[in-house]
Design a protein that fits this description.
By secondary structure, this protein is an alpha/beta fold. Helix content is about 25%, strand content about 15%. A 3-stranded parallel β-sheet has the order 1-2-3. Helix 1 links the parallel strand 1 and strand 2. The chain is elongated and about 50 Å long. It starts with 6 loop residues before the first strand and ends in a 5-residue tail after the last helix. About 20% of the residues are buried.
Length: about 110
């Protein structure tokens, strides 16, 4: 397949399986990422889409684990934010803590 034949610059997380397939389809030469994706990773964490056997798609190089802790913290920060454009019924419900909550003693 013809493609853009370029490198995908450093990104926080490993591309998912679908994204890894698309990157390979577009003939990306190298993907660099911080932390792995143990649920949907397509560059070795779950599946190795980047170098799976194919008669028509060229494999690409993977370089992962670059500042993995920092990358994970960045992703956590991103997902903690609320999407202000989401419909009200789809927004996360944030529970407000009260002074009484801190006074409760857990039952053993």
């Amino acid at each position: 397949s013809s493609g853009i034949n370029a490198e995908w610059p450093l990104r926080p997380g490993e591309p998912c399986i679908m994204c890894a397939g698309l990157l390979r389809y577009f003939n990306i030469r190298k993907v660099t990422f911080g932390c792995g994706n143990d649920r949907f990773g397509g560059n070795g964490s779950v599946l190795s889409v980047h170098d799976a056997l194919s008669d028509i798609l060229v494999p690409y190089e993977v370089s992962g684990g670059h500042e993995a802790d920092r990358a994970m913290n960045l992703l956590k920060l991103f997902y903690e934010q609320e999407n202000i454009n989401a419909p009200q019924e789809k927004r996360k419900k944030k529970e407000k803590s009260t002074d009484c909550d801190s006074a409760l003693i857990p039952l053993l």
